[in-house]
Amino acid sequence: MKAAVLTFPGSNCDADLLWAVQEIAGQEAALVSANTEDLTGFDLVLVPGGFSYGDYLRSGAIAKFAPVMGALKTFAANGGYVLGICNGFQILTEAGLLPGALQVNTSLEFICEPEPLIVANHQTAFSNQYAAGQTISLPIAHGEGNYYADPETLASIEAHQQVVFRYAENPNGSLNDIAGLTNEAGNVLGMMPHPERAVEALLGGTDGLGVFESLIAATKGAVHVAN
Amino acid sequence: MYKAKIFVNYKQSVLDPKAEVIKHTLHRLGQDNVQDVTVGKYFEVLLEGAHDAVAAQVDTLCDQMLANVNMESYRFTLEEVSQ
Amino acid sequence: MYKAKIFVNYKQSVLDPKAEVIKHTLHRLGQDNVQDVTVGKYFEVLLEGAHDAVAAQVDTLCDQMLANVNMESYRFTLEEVSQ
Amino acid sequence: MLQTEPTPEQIRDQKPYLQLGLTEAEYALFTKRLGRLPNYTEVGLQSGMWSEHCAYKYSKPILKTFWTKNERVLMGPGEGAGVIAIGEGKAVVFKAESHNHPSAVEPYEGAATGIGGIIRDIFSIGAKPVASLDSLAFGTRFDAHNQNLIDQVVAGIGGYGNAIGIPTVGGEIQFDASYQDNPLVNAMCVGVMDEKDIQRGQAAGVGNAIIYVGAKTGRDGINGASFASAQFSKEEDADRSAVQVGDPFMEKLLTDACLAVTQKHQKALVGMQDMGAAGLVSSSAEMASKAGFGMTLDLDLIPQREPGMTPFEIMLSESQERMLLCIRTGFEQEILDLFAGYDLDAVVCGRVEAGHQYRLLHHGAVVCDIPVGLLTDAVPTYTTTPKQPARLAHPAPDFTPTITDIDQTLRALLALPNIASKRSLFKRYDAQVQTNTVIAPGGDAGVIRVRGTHRALAMTADSNGRLLALDPEIGGAITVAEAARNLVATGAEPLGITDCLNYGDPSKPEVYYELQASAKGIVEATKVFNTPVISGNVSLYNETSGVGIHPTPMIGMVGLITDLDAITTVAFKQAGDVVFLVGATGDDYNGSSIQYLQNGAYAGRLTGFDLTQEKAIQDKMLKAIQAHLVNACHDLADGGLAAALVEMGTANRLGIKGSTALSAAQFFAETQGRFLAAVPPAQQAAFAAQMGKDAVVLGTVSDGEFVLDLADAKLDTTIADLAAIQEEALAWQLK
Ligand SMILES: Nc1ncnc2c1ncn2[C@@H]1O[C@H](COP(=O)(O)OP(=O)(O)O)[C@@H](O)[C@H]1O
Ligand SMILES: [Mg+2]
């Protein structure tokens, strides 16, 4: 598997993702500047956490104008796997690659804590290594992770089983306890919790490895379109 | 030159955590005459150009950048200003 | 019942990173006719009461809670509205 | 506006420098050394550079007594931050800084810019910032003002640190009436680098370029700005604010770009320094002076955020997120291009000159032309004749608590703000970004592993104002010892310290006494623990209405772990482990939490501290941890054995079942030099042998019951009950 880790000005989890994919999961990966306009040759594009362009307007609102976004849309439209984590999730919703939006947490506070999650759909490219209904623990670290979508959108998300992870103890007000969800086609996932922060026992747990292992399994033998 | 005054607000169906906290605090402080609070953003943008072109440009700017239309709505006015 | 429309903005000498980033992005996208951007907050508060009492209350509210007077200035208008 | 500035003669006659914080004697000295009357810009530069913050007028004699060097120190005080070798070609860089006053005025931005400033100190040395800590002190009256202050300071620290992507891995938050009107906001940053890349803030080599990079210069944070505008400008003040707003996004770009310069453009780089206190003048003058050169700057080239800024304003602005570099002639474009790649404004704004003159040009005129040493080295130092405060001459009689209901007492103790968990506050900090955090806030020390090595660093920030108020010398030594104890509990060997000296007005004999006495205690302890002071910061005049804060030196200590498997945490891991109490317990209650609980105040002399004994216990404890004999370890501090036992059980809701010869009162004693260790049964004999008479068995870890037979009382409850109090008490009081 060959992964691109996008780097926007202000991204701060890009190096962490690179480390998780390269050093821990043992896959090929490269940092790719948000100024790039070509994502040819990658099986997976990772959109990292952080504060792209400061997140000063709204999380992810400026990043969607980065030069790489056109290529990312093409990549996703062609069925390529895209995983957005935290700010990456916010960017994907702002860019319209995922439904809904992320609001400020109901506590109005940034929250950094390990959070129990339920694997709501284990039959996706991102979760096939987990058991159905399994509870895992992943860290969250965000101030704006409160998932919102209007009622019709929410109904459609549920009808298409797009929710992959739900909070066991909703920390931020997210509708339907949504912690992570895919697009309807199932090749784009956004999640607020950080799987890349849970891949080493030394750092407190390995429950996040499943996400990367699922993608490795999905890319093996799957058909890719590398535009 | 035009000054665009732009208001961005949560749509009514969206619960706004910031507004809730302010209202709740005011009630806790005994200001029970406060019926409702909304929190929005206010932008001013100065632009050169002809009225209609600027109006179209500001509309796109709001739709694409200043507001997230999944949860926010916007309105704006244009005022001609001298340099 | 009155509706207070409240505008809160940074004072001029205060750095506004939000406005800088927005302006810079617009220029990067080729919208060179954008001369200036300011970013502020806009609140609406609905309050019961007599005009002058409400005005005083809103002023305190702005001064104590909605604006940080060390670095922000505020202005507001009051409009009578029917319930 | 230029024409409204006073002439040199008007300055001499009207003495506007008094409002800038200079004395008549200082002005006279400067004028005499200059050989002419200084103009307004020059007096402005003098006021900035001769301020306590830049010149350490009162504190230099104290700082000189610090022990600053051992075999591992690569760079001691005098640069942006100090550096210590940690092996495998790597070095650790750290420093702490106070932002007390800015945070009192504008809590969010004050705290945020405090973090921003200390980060720049670290990467200006060439180190990648890898962790931050914060030490906060607030008043005990939780009125709306204080609640907002606490909330906004915490939000500001998180707002900046989280955005820039540096994990906050430790710190402390304490409450004492002494800080009600003078909160303390001290921030510490730790960086890691290759030893070979260390660089200094110097501007050498005739003709080399001075490059300014980062945010534009505005009128924020100008020393005496209010004076300048009130006296000499017609402008409306209502639209002016001296508050500095932090821009972590800009700082992230600046960090990455400057590290690229130090790592990949070493041929081009002569020196680099951040613009901190007294902004452009202090960074440029110090860089030239340190290297023994002169400098000319053209102020028209300085990026400015507002029109019409005067040289005074440009030079003394404390706008954030700015750096100054000295670059070899011929390499200018290479460096400008590099910064452009990060979307940063950078300009060549001056040159290094032969000789020692410091010259500023503005609109074609020379607005300053003085020997640079006049700014950096001519500053007089002051000492005050110390006088022992009366309270120290006549300490209150020793306190002994009376415990009638141990269960009730324990519950009340756990709810004290200083004992209660601070998680509701520090969970607002991103503790894990960079994915190196082994121990996040909540442990005895934060621990991060060092990528590319088999090592980890432990770090802690500690202060004990209430103890120093009772005895500054012993209190100072205890603070160092406690910091070391925190590191040892995680399995780290202490390496060195940074400090923030937070005190009242040093011209008061009593305050000066406190400064001197506490420095004495600190120096003695740093030698015993082999932890030299490699950097630090001084914050004086922490007073309101003439009343100063407790003398509060904040000690930031960093330690080294060479075996990642030996890293030890506070939490009990499994029922059945044997719980040992390490170190002797005495009847030491003065200055303790139990005294505060029962008397509402801390009083008496400090007893039960022995530096040599403390060091011996710490060494033994560290050896046991390094030998993998220990499953969990915790140092004893506030709240003594009582608080420590609960803290170990909280995370996994594991209790204790045991008995001890200690009395109910001693359960709450705060004798220094003690640890608790949980030892797997298989290692019990080895541990006991290693510790000898210094460790006694207290009991075994239980599934949840919390039962302890004391000499004169019996405690019988559950950890779930106690943990809930300890976890929720503070959050509840701050709502
Ligand atoms: N209390 C202290 N202990 C040790 N060193 C100190 C202390 N205070 C200041 N220093 C050292 O003096 C130098 C100048 O400090 P400072 O002016 O605070 O730095 P900055 O320019 O970053 O504000 C630094 O090297 C700092 O480490
Ligand atoms: Mg510095």
TrEMBL record, chain A:
The active site is at 86 (nucleophile), 194, 196. GO terms for molecular function: glutaminase activity; phosphoribosylformylglycinamidine synthase activity. InterPro entries: Class_I_gatase-like (IPR029062), PRibForGlyAmidine_synth_PurQ (IPR010075). It comes from the Bacteria. Its EC number is 6.3.5.3, 3.5.1.2. Its main location: cytoplasm. Pathway: Purine metabolism; IMP biosynthesis via de novo pathway; 5-amino-1-(5-phospho-D-ribosyl)imidazole from N(2)-formyl-N(1)-(5-phospho-D-ribosyl)glycinamide: step 1/2. Gene3D superfamilies: 3.40.50.880. It is found in: Cytoplasm. Signal peptide: none annotated. It catalyses: N(2)-formyl-N(1)-(5-phospho-beta-D-ribosyl)glycinamide + L-glutamine + ATP + H2O = 2-formamido-N(1)-(5-O-phospho-beta-D-ribosyl)acetamidine + L-glutamate + ADP + phosphate + H(+); L-glutamine + H2O = L-glutamate + NH4(+). SMART domains: GATase_5. Keywords: ATP-binding, Cytoplasm, Glutamine amidotransferase, Hydrolase, Ligase, Nucleotide-binding, Purine biosynthesis. Part of the FGAM synthase complex composed of 1 PurL, 1 PurQ and 2 PurS subunits. Part of the phosphoribosylformylglycinamidine synthase complex involved in the purines biosynthetic pathway. Catalyzes the ATP-dependent conversion of formylglycinamide ribonucleotide (FGAR) and glutamine to yield formylglycinamidine ribonucleotide (FGAM) and glutamate. The FGAM synthase complex is composed of three subunits. PurQ produces an ammonia molecule by converting glutamine to glutamate. PurL transfers the ammonia molecule to FGAR to form FGAM in an ATP-dependent manner. This is Phosphoribosylformylglycinamidine synthase subunit PurQ. It comes from Lacticaseibacillus baoqingensis. The gene is purQ.
UniProtKB/TrEMBL annotation, chains B, C:
It catalyses: N(2)-formyl-N(1)-(5-phospho-beta-D-ribosyl)glycinamide + L-glutamine + ATP + H2O = 2-formamido-N(1)-(5-O-phospho-beta-D-ribosyl)acetamidine + L-glutamate + ADP + phosphate + H(+). It is found in: Cytoplasm. Pathway: Purine metabolism; IMP biosynthesis via de novo pathway; 5-amino-1-(5-phospho-D-ribosyl)imidazole from N(2)-formyl-N(1)-(5-phospho-D-ribosyl)glycinamide: step 1/2. It comes from the Bacteria. The keyword ATP-binding applies. SUPFAM superfamilies: PurS-like (SSF82697). Transmembrane segments: none annotated. Its EC number is 6.3.5.3. The keyword Aminoacyl-tRNA synthetase does not apply. GO terms for molecular function: phosphoribosylformylglycinamidine synthase activity. It is an enzyme of class 6 (ligase). Keywords: ATP-binding, Cytoplasm, Ligase, Nucleotide-binding, Purine biosynthesis. Part of the phosphoribosylformylglycinamidine synthase complex involved in the purines biosynthetic pathway. Catalyzes the ATP-dependent conversion of formylglycinamide ribonucleotide (FGAR) and glutamine to yield formylglycinamidine ribonucleotide (FGAM) and glutamate. The FGAM synthase complex is composed of three subunits. PurQ produces an ammonia molecule by converting glutamine to glutamate. PurL transfers the ammonia molecule to FGAR to form FGAM in an ATP-dependent manner. Belongs to the PurS family. Part of the FGAM synthase complex composed of 1 PurL, 1 PurQ and 2 PurS subunits. This is Phosphoribosylformylglycinamidine synthase subunit PurS. It comes from Lacticaseibacillus baoqingensis. The lineage of its organism: Bacteria, Bacillati, Bacillota, Bacilli, Lactobacillales.
UniProtKB/TrEMBL annotation, chain D:
The active site is at residues 53, 99. It catalyses: N(2)-formyl-N(1)-(5-phospho-beta-D-ribosyl)glycinamide + L-glutamine + ATP + H2O = 2-formamido-N(1)-(5-O-phospho-beta-D-ribosyl)acetamidine + L-glutamate + ADP + phosphate + H(+). PANTHER family: PHOSPHORIBOSYLFORMYLGLYCINAMIDINE SYNTHASE SUBUNIT PURL. GO terms for molecular function: phosphoribosylformylglycinamidine synthase activity. ATP binds at residues 56, 95, 499, 536. Coiled coil: none annotated. Keywords: ATP-binding, Cytoplasm, Ligase, Magnesium, Metal-binding, Nucleotide-binding, Purine biosynthesis. Residues 206-360, 574-705 form the PurM-like C-terminal domain. Its EC number is 6.3.5.3. Substrate binds at residues 98-101, 120, 244, 318-320, 539. It is found in: Cytoplasm. CDD domains: PurL_repeat1, PurL_repeat2. It is an enzyme of class 6 (ligase). Monomer. Part of the FGAM synthase complex composed of 1 PurL, 1 PurQ and 2 PurS subunits. Part of the phosphoribosylformylglycinamidine synthase complex involved in the purines biosynthetic pathway. Catalyzes the ATP-dependent conversion of formylglycinamide ribonucleotide (FGAR) and glutamine to yield formylglycinamidine ribonucleotide (FGAM) and glutamate. The FGAM synthase complex is composed of three subunits. PurQ produces an ammonia molecule by converting glutamine to glutamate. PurL transfers the ammonia molecule to FGAR to form FGAM in an ATP-dependent manner. It holds the Pfam family AIRS_C. Mg(2+) 1 binds at residues 97, 537. This is Phosphoribosylformylglycinamidine synthase subunit PurL. Belongs to the FGAMS family. Its main location: cytoplasm. Pathway: Purine metabolism; IMP biosynthesis via de novo pathway; 5-amino-1-(5-phospho-D-ribosyl)imidazole from N(2)-formyl-N(1)-(5-phospho-D-ribosyl)glycinamide: step 1/2. Residues 78-193, 442-561 form the PurM-like N-terminal domain. Mg(2+) 2 binds at residues 121, 274.
